[in-house]
Amino acid sequence: MGETHEAAPLRALLLYYSYTGQSRTVLQAAGEVLRDNGFEVQEAAVELTDPRYAKPFARFPMRRVWPDMLSVLPAQVRRADARVAVPDVVREGGFDLVCIGSPTWWSTASLPIRSFLRSTDARKLLARRQFAVFVVCRDSWRGNLAAVRRLAEWQGGRYAGEIHLTYPGDQLRSMLSLTSYLGSGRYRARYAGVRIPVTNVQPEQLDRVRDFAADLAERTRAEVIACRANSM
Ligand SMILES: Cc1cc2nc3c(=O)[nH]c(=O)nc-3n(C[C@H](O)[C@H](O)[C@H](O)COP(=O)(O)O)c2cc1C
């Protein structure tokens, strides 16, 4: 394992927005596997800086769960953009693989990741590059995946696959468990008198992420070797 012949090592970027740290944990698990497979891995967290939206997400746990969650609903419905910041490594570019991770917010990609994916920085990062999508949410992953994939392809990226992780329980119980956690930062067995399941990404789900990342590493290497051979 390691470098592609005598050529430069493959480079991967872990690009994510993560409010409670779930997407970050998932991408970091993938990043470890990519490193073990010879990739040079860098990390870039998207930061929500827009004064119209940032305040509720600048602290955890939330101060008032429902008003704080609802604060971004109109922007999500309108598919609005917000001001975001990314570290300089994003503008360096030259990545062979970009892993894009974000939570679902109101059934679609979160405001910060959508805003970044619509930017000119995203075009420079993704044009002609492979990208994989990592979706983390309570249950509604499809709209998030579709939005991230569509935007990254619109910026010229080449889709290399997806993995989505959802949380157990029926609609009511998984929602109670999530809001209990967002409002307290703690895991509880019961909320409002109702027994609730676990929320957030579980260790066995990270094993699935590692398998996905190992496969992604292999496919990216094959693709890059083929591209380099074609351009010789
Ligand atoms: C504002 C907001 C809206 C959310 N909307 C949804 C949703 O529509 N569907 C869903 O399955 N999960 C939803 N969630 C749950 C998140 O996807 C979940 O908390 C995720 O673990 C957060 O990942 P992160 O820690 O990387 O931010 C929402 C969370 C927040 C904070």
Automatic annotation (TrEMBL):
InterPro entries documented for this protein: Flavoprotein-like_sf
Domain of life: Bacteria
Protein name: Flavodoxin
The organism of origin for this protein: Tsukamurella soli
Source lineage: Bacteria, Bacillati, Actinomycetota, Actinomycetes, Mycobacteriales
